[in-house]
């Protein structure tokens, strides 16, 4: 697979602040790359730099093998962008908004009409063509925002937190739409701070913090970095220190912590850990109201790498 | 084409504003047609006078009273000083004339008997005073020639009836030109409101931060996109101008199809263009729609009030007019007011209007330059 986007040693500075710090990565054709990081980690700035909306201080950016510049219209014609904030005309209907934004790329009226209909179907706005944005719910408005960015059938799509403040139904619709776009052959760069979405959608993930790449790989590869394979959480009524000491001596245990009544046990490897722990609690007559086991999340990876939560 | 089409789709959303200001102009136009310019009509003023005559049988006295009666309203009140003073105080009468006993006889004998007066001292009293003075002057002049009382009266009356016939050798229909000027002066408000309000709102939609980003990253050249927007704004402003001209043609009829009418129209077009440059400047400075509507109201209304769009500029205080010089509407309205009174249209008479037009063009160029500087500065810091 060829490289669609190549970012090499890119730095973007605002006076004292380095928003993007010597950033390098590539995006392969047909993949969905997730840019994951907390607010202020440099995700949106990275996208704005790639799109030449911001001047970079150092580095090079290539799209489709060509240097990206503000006047690189031959590159821009194959790019679609869905910004975090909704960018539509309040005075235009759903259809007219799509007609305008698609019309910036496609001049042929007949072709444009076909594309618009496809985009409307993709985001499920068939019944809202004549609605004005003010008449749409937050979720429907987000769907319109996406449709406006992808109606011209771009080969490379940037989706900057498209599901922020969206109802579950619209979120599912949007995520399904993104998968469809990928299936049609589009390459997607997806930024979010929702780990679940990244795990669900992305073939590859880049974790950013302070404008730098912290880690890169598939979801499973990244989870290796969490130094654990299983996490068991128990809400105990009361537990003695001696019992906690016994847990620590279990074979795969990585760490045991007790905060108020919540006992968290992390394991390096995940096999038969839950039943073993339940047996021990029973033997020592420790009563509990809740017990559950989890696989490590990307938040655990981030926590392990930076010492802070993704949503901090 | 899509930019042009979208511009008009957005304009459609603001058609209510266009209709509102057009209706305002139409209503004003109709009201204007039904009022006359008081400056052009002469109304003969008749003061209210009271005469106390002590010379009942004098022929000269009778003639004086007859003359005064023809040119004023003779009032009857009690011949008591208190009543007379009250009547003067309450302006029931403006002027009191006391004709002494044997007035006619004494005049014919060559003496100069004194006629006492009392007056309110106002404009009407001054008219009555002048009337009396005129009569007495003529009487004094003819008395030197005539010794016979009847001949003297005949000579005085003959002289009083001789009046200069004044004909104004003018083909200018001041009612029509006044109506036209008033219409175009008021149109300055409608033009400013319709052009600035709508263009600013439409432009702020296109220049909204995120929409602008979307346009910039598209495959359409952003400069080309903006050029199309400017062209659409220009066409829109021209249509707005045409609408007000058509409305003017309906209300003012034939005067618009004359050279004077053509100048009115050209002046309005220059002002429309200047309003467009103001609109573009505002839309570069401010993109918040709520702020835009507030600012436009202040500019359009403020400018119209200060420059004499609603009231004749001669009624405005000097200080206000000095400030108004800094606004394009002043020069536009000044041209309309000049056009109202120009008798013959030629190079010389049009000179002040051409200067006003030049000032409007300078204003427009200035706004365009400012707009470019601010745009470039904003791009740089953006």
Task: Summarize this structure as a short list of keywords or feature phrases.
heterodimer, A: 312 residues, alpha/beta, Rossmann fold, Alpha-Beta Plaits, six-stranded mixed beta sheet, four-stranded antiparallel beta sheet, 14 strands, elongated, B: 382 residues, mainly alpha, abc type-2 transporter like fold, 2 domains, four-stranded mixed beta sheet, 4 strands, 70% helix
Here the CATH topology of the largest domain in chain A equals Rossmann fold
Major β-sheet profile of chain B: 4 strands, mixed
Oligomeric organization of the protein chains: heterodimer
Strand content of chain A: 25-35%
Radius of gyration of chain B equals 33 Å
Strand content of chain B: under 5%
Bulk shape of chain A: elongated
Largest interface comes to: A-B, 30 and 24 residues
Using only CA atoms, what is the Rg of chain A?
Answer: 23 Å
The strand order across the widest sheet of chain B is 2-1-3-4
Compressed to H and E, one letter per element, the order of chain B equals: HHEHEHEHEHHHHHHHHHH
Q: How many domains comprise the coordinates of chain A?
A: 2
Poorly predicted runs of chain A are: none
- According to DSSP, the number of beta strands of chain A is 14
Widest beta sheet: strand line-up of chain A: 6-7-8-3-9-10
SS elements, strand count of chain B: 4
**SS summary, helix count of chain B:** 15
Distance between the termini of chain A: 36 Å
Specify the helix fraction band of chain B.
over 70%
CATH superfamily of the largest domain in chain A: P-loop containing nucleotide triphosphate hydrolases
Structural class of chain A: alpha/beta
């Amino acid at each position: 697979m060829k490289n669609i986007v190549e970012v090499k040693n890119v730095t973007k500075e605002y006076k004292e602040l380095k928003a993007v710090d010597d950033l390098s990565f590539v995006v392969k054709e047909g993949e969905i790359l997730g840019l994951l990081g907390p607010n202020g980690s440099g995700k949106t700035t990275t996208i704005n730099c790639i799109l030449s909306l911001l001047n970079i201080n150092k580095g090079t950016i290539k799209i489709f093998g060509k240097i990206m510049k503000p006047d690189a219209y031959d590159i821009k014609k194959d790019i679609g962008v869905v910004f975090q904030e909704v960018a539509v005309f309040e005075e235009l209907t759903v259809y007219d908004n799509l007609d305008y934004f698609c019309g910036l790329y496609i001049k042929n009226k007949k072709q444009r009409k076909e594309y618009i209909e496809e985009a409307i179907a993709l985001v499920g706005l068939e019944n809202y063509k004549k609605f004005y944005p003010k008449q749409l719910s937050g979720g429907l408005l987000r769907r319109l925002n996406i449709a406006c960015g992808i109606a011209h059938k771009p080969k490379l799509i940037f989706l900057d937190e498209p599901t922020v403040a969206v109802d579950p139904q619209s979120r599912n619709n949007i995520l399904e739409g993104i998968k469809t776009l990928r299936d049609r052959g589009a390459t997607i760069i997806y930024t979010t701070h929702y780990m679940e979405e990244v795990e669900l959608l992305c073939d590859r993930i880049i974790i950013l913090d302070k404008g730098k790449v912290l880690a890169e790989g598939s979801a499973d590869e990244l989870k290796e970095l969490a130094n654990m394979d299983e996490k068991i959480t128990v809400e105990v009524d009361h537990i003695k220190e001696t019992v906690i000491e016994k847990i620590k001596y279990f074979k795969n245990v990585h760490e045991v912590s007790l905060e108020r009544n919540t006992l968290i046990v992390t394991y390096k490897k995940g096999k038969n850990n839950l039943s073993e722990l339940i047996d021990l609690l029973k033997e020592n007559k420790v009563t509990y109201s809740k017990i559950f086991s989890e696989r490590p999340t990307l938040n655990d990876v981030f926590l392990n790498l930076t010492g802070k939560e993704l949503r901090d | 084409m899509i930019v042009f089409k979208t511009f008009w789709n957005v304009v459609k959303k603001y058609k209510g504003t266009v209709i509102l200001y057009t209706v305002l102009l139409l209503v004003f136009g109709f009201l204007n047609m039904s009022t006359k310019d008081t400056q052009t009509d002469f109304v003969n003023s008749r003061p209210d006078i009271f005469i106390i005559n002590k010379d009942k049988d004098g022929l000269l006295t009778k003639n004086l009273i007859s003359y005064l009666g023809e040119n004023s309203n003779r009032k009857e009140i009690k011949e008591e000083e208190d009543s007379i003073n009250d009547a003067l105080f309450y302006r029931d009468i403006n002027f009191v004339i006391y004709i002494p006993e044997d007035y006619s006889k004494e005049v014919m004998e060559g003496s100069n008997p004194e006629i006492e007066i009392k007056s309110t001292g106002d404009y009407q009293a001054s008219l009555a005073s002048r009337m009396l003075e005129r009569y007495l002057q003529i009487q004094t002049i003819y008395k030197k020639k005539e010794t016979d009382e009847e001949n003297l009266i005949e000579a005085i009356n003959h002289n009083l009836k001789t009046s200069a016939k004044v004909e104004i050798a003018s083909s200018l229909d001041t009612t029509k030109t006044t109506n036209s000027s008033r219409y175009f002066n008021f149109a300055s408000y409608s033009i400013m409101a319709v052009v600035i309000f709508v263009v600013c709102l439409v432009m702020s939609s296109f220049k909204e931060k995120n929409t602008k980003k979307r346009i910039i990253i598209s495959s359409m050249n952003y400069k080309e996109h903006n050029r199309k927007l400017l062209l659409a704004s220009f066409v829109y402003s021209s249509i707005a101008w045409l609408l007000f001209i058509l409305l003017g043609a309906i209300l003012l009829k034939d005067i618009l199809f004359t050279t004077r009418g053509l100048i009115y129209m050209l002046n309005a077009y220059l002002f429309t263009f200047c309003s467009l440059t103001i609109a573009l400047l505002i839309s570069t400075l401010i993109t918040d729609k709520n702020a835009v509507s507030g600012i436009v109201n202040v500019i359009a209304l403020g400018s119209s009030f200060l420059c004499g769009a609603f009231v004749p500029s001669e009624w405005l205080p000097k200080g206000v007019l000095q400030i108004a010089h800094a606004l394009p509407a002043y020069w536009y309205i000044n041209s309309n007011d000049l056009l109202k009174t120009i008798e013959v249209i030629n190079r010389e008479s049009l000179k002040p209007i051409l200067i006003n037009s030049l000032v409007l063009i300078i204003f427009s160029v200035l706004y365009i330059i400012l707009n470019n500087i601010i745009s470039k500065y904003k791009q740089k810091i953006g």
